[in-house]
Amino acid sequence: MSTFADIILPVAIPRLFTYSIPDEIADSVKVGSRVVVSFGKKKFYSGVVYRIHDTKPEEYDVKPITSVVDSNPVVRLSQLELWRWISEYYVSTLGEVYRAALPSGLKLESETRIIYNAHFETDDKLSDKEYKIIDFMSDKKVCSISDLSQAITDFNVIPVLKLLIDKSALFVNEEIKESYKALSEKFYSLAPSCRKEAVLGLKFDQLERAPRQLETLMALLTKLGGLGKAILGASVSRTELMKQPGVQTAALLELVKKGIIEQSDQEVSRLGSVETTDQEANTLSEIQASAYSGIKKSFENHDITLLHGVTSSGKTEIYIHLINQYIEQGKQVLYLLPEIALTTQITSRLRKHFGNRLGIYHSKFSDAERVEVWNNMLGNSGFRVILGVRSSIFLPFESLGLIIIDEEHENSFKQFDPAPRYHARDAAMMLGRIHGAKVLLGTATPSVETYHNAVSGRYGLVELLTRHEGIQMPHIVPVDIKEARRKKQMKSIFSPQLIEAMHTSVAKGEQVILFQNRRGFAPFVECGQCAWVPKCKHCDVSMTYHKNQNQLVCHYCSYSYALPDTCHACGSPALETKGYGTEKIEEEVKVVFPDARVARLDLDTARSRKAFEKIINDFEEHNLDILIGTQMISKGLDFDRVSVVGILNADNMLNYPDFRAFERSYQMMAQVSGRAGRKNKQGLVILQTSDTNHPVIKDVVTNDFMSQFNQQIAERQLFKYPPFYRLINITVKHKDTHTNKKAATMLATRLRAIFGDRVLGPQEPPITRIATYFLQRIILKIEKQ
Ligand code: ADP
Ligand code: ZN
Ligand code: ZN
User: CB of 303 within 8 A of CB of 433?
Assistant: First the structure.
C-alpha cells in the first residue's frame, strides 16, 4: 500500500518533499505526474512525482496532495533518471533541473503570470469556480498565480486554472499571446448513429417542425461535401461551418443534444502542418561514403564517436543518411545544435527529407509551441527527428536511437546561469547512455577534451579531411597590422591587403565576410585631455559606445545613458572613441565601398529570429556584397559565393583571460575562414594581427589542427586543466566589497581544510563587479580519478 509521494518542487532546496496521497486520487498519481501541492504560506506549486512509497516521514506532518494535474504522466522515467544525473553532476537541486527541463506552460508556480484571453468563447458551461476566476481575470488581464490566490481565497485556484488554461480561456506568460492560434477547435460531423440514409430520413421527418434546425443540418451536410461524405464521417471545424449560410448556433447546439450532430474537440496544431516531402538524400561521394561506413563500424564498439570533418566536407549530408537509417529502424533521433542562429539553414535542409516527422525545439519558439512539441513526444508516435538547442535534451523521448551533436566544440552548449549549469554535450551523452543510443559528435574543430578522448580510444574517431567536390581549403594570409600602422599603410582599420581583396571580390560580384568579435561602435570612450573613461555605474567595465543610438551601453548589465558632450572629470569636449566594434566597421566599409550592399549581423541587428533570418537570407540570395558580424557568422553557415573573409583583429580573442582562450581563438578563426571558398575557386582569408608569430595564428594559417591540439593538450596537462582535471568555479558575490572578501576568504579556508592545495583563491576575477555585485572567485582543481 503506497500512500506517500516524494515530489520535486521548483525550488532551490536540495531535497524532495513528501506528501500523502488521498484515496480519491490514488489511481491517477503516478511517477512523472504533475500534482498541485501547497507549500509554505499560501503558496501552491505544481510539482512532479518522483517516487511513490509507504514510509511516513518522521520529522514533520505530511500534507495531502491537493490535486493531480494530468491524467497521464508528463515526464517519463528515463527523463527523471537524466534529471537526477544532472542534479548530482552539476551540483544543483532536482527542483532547479525541473525548472530548466519543462517549458513554462507545463509549470504552474506562484510567480507564474496568467493572462486573460479576451477572445475566449465557449459553449460549455463554466463551473462557479471557473466563472469566478474568469470574472476576476477579465478585469485584471494579467496577474500572478500568487496574487490570484490572495484575491480568491475560498478555494484553491490552481486546479481550476489548469482547466481554464486547457480551454484557452487563460494563457501562461505573455509570449503566448502573440503566436496564439486556437489550441483545439470544435469539429462537427454527422453523429455515427445517423450515418445511414434510412435513419437520417427519419430524423429529417422529426425536424419538420424545427425549421432552423433543419436548415442548420442541411447547411452542415452541404459543407461536408454532401450526404455521401457525411455518412463516411467527414467533419468540419466550427470556424469553417460558421461561414456556411443557414447555420445557427442555438440550432446547432440543439442538434448536438438530440444526437444528430456530433461535436468533438480536435487539436489544431500551432506548429503548422508541413507536407512530407520525403526527398531522397544526396548520394554520398566516395570519401563521404567511407566516412559513413566508418561511423557505423565505430558504433559497433564505441557508443560515442567523433566525426572530425573539415568545413564543407559534407558532415550534414552524412548526418542525413544516418538519421534515415535510425528512423527506418523505428528509432528517434536528436540533432543538437549549439545555437538558434544555426537552425534556420539546417531546418530547411532537414525538412526536405523528413517533412513533418521533424520537430523543432528552441527558446525563440513561444511557450505554447514548446508545450505542443512536448505533448507530441509524449505520445507513442511522436516526432522521429528533433532538431533543437540544448534544452531539447529534456524532451520526453520514447525510443531514442541516435544523438548528433553538431559543432560539438561550441561553448554555447554550456548553460552558465542559472543552475543547473549543465553542458548539453556532456548531458546528451548521459541521455544516450540511458536510452542505449549512439552519440555522434561532429565538428571541423574538435574541442581539446573531445579530441583527447578520441585519440585515447575512449571515443571512436572518423576523419573527413577534404571538402566536398575537392574544393580547396582557403588560403590564409596573416597581415601584421602593427607593422602596417608603423608604415602608415592602414586605411583606418583595414590593411592594404584586405582592401585590395575586398575590391577584387566585390568587383567580380562575389561576397565578403568581415569578422570582429565585438559589437557596438567602440569598446570605450576616452577623454583626450585627461584620459577619463566612462565606466558602468553597476559594473567594473568601461561603457561601449553605440553610435546608432548615441548611447553608452554596458555589455554586462545593459545599463545605458547618452554619450556626454563633455568629460565628466575635466569638462573638456575632447571625448574620443577608442578601438572598434562591428558598428564602426560597418560605417567605415560604407565609406570605402560606397556602392557595395552592406549589412551587419550581431546581437544588435539580429535581436529577433526574423531579423536574423532576413539578414542570412539576403546574404544567401546575393542581395548583399559584404556582411560584417561577430561570432554569429562564424558558425556552420553555408554560403556559396564568399570568396574573401577578413578577420579584423585576432589579438583581443587571444588575449582573453581564460584557459580556453587559445583553443577558442583557433576554433573561431578556423570556422570563420571556413566560410570562404566555393566551387573551382579557392577562398582567401586576410587575418589581421599584431603578432604574426603567435603559435595559434601560425596553426590557423597552416590549417594545422594537430599542432594546435598538441600544444594545448601539453599545457592542459602541465597546468592541471581539463581534460586531466575537473574544474569547479565558485563565485562569491555581495554588494559590499569587504563583506564579500571576508566571506570568500572564509569559504576558501574551509574548503582548503578538506581539499588542501586543490583550492585556488579567492581571487578577483578580471571584471571585479557586475550588476552592482562584487565578485570573488574560488577555483577547485580536482583530479579526474
Ligand atoms: P559540412 O556540414 O561538413 O559543413 P555540408 O554537408 O554542409 O558540409 O556540405 C557542404 C555543401 O556541399 C552543402 O551545400 C551540401 O549540400 C553540399 N554537399 C556535400 N556533400 C554532398 C553530396 N554528397 N551531394 C550533393 N551535395 C553535397
Ligand atoms: Zn577629461
Ligand atoms: Zn553594467
Answer: yes
Query: What is the pLDDT, as a whole number, of residue 321?
Result: 97
For residue 103, the SS3 value is: coil
Give the distance, in angstroms, between the CA of residue 93 and the centroid of all CA atoms in the same chain: 21
Backbone angles phi, psi at 513, to 5 degrees: -115, 130
- Predicted TM-score (pTM) of the model is 0.80
* Share in percent of the chain as helix, strand, coil (round to 5): 40, 20, 40
Q: What is the whole-number distance in angstroms between the Cα of residue 412 and the centre of ligand 3? A: 22
Tell me the pLDDT tens digit for each residue of 5-48. Answer: 999 998 888 889 999 999 988 888 999 999 888 887 757 788 99
In terms of Cα–Cα distance, which of 348, 361, 332, 501 is closest to 424? 361
Nearest of 445, 401, 449, 444 to residue 425 by alpha carbon: 449
Element (H, E) at 222: helix 211-223
- pLDDT category of residue 342 using cuts at 50, 70 and 90: low
The 3-state DSSP class for residue 236 equals strand
Q: How far apart are CA 269 and CA 452, in angstroms?
A: 45
Across 484-520, b (16+ Cβ under 10 Å) vs e yields beeeeebeebbbebbbebbeebbeeebbbbbbbbbbb
Q: Please choose, from the candidates 409, 411, 373, the residue with its C-alpha nearest in 3D space to the C-alpha of residue 394.
A: 373
Query: Using CA atoms, how far apart are residues 145 and 45, in angstroms rounded to an integer?
Result: 10
Q: Judge if the beta carbon of residue 312 lies within 6 A of ligand 1.
A: yes
Residue among 337, 638, 640 whose CB has most ligand 1 atoms within 8 A, to mutate: 638
Residue 637 has pLDDT above 80, yes or no: no
Q: Which residues are bridge partners to 262 per DSSP?
A: 189
| pLDDT digit string, tens, across residues 524-559 | 899 999 989 999 988 888 899 998 888 999 888 888
Residue with cell 487539436: 267
Residue 285 pLDDT grade (very low, low, confident, very high; cuts 50, 70, 90)? very high
* Sign of the Cα pseudo-torsion (483, 487, 490, 492, in order): positive
751 Cβ contact partners less than 8 Å away, ≥ 6 residues apart: 759, 778, 780
- Kindly state if the Cβ of 284 falls inside 6 Å of ligand 1: yes
533 Cα to the center of ligand 2, angstroms: 8
pLDDT at 323 over 70: yes
Q: Which residues pair with 184 in a beta bridge?
A: 267
Per-residue pLDDT for 136 more than 60? yes
In the structure, what pLDDT confidence band is assigned to residue 179 with cuts at 50, 70 and 90?
very low
Minimal-distance CA residue to ligand 1 atom 15: 314
User: Is the beta carbon of 761 within 6 A of some atom in ligand 1?
Assistant: no
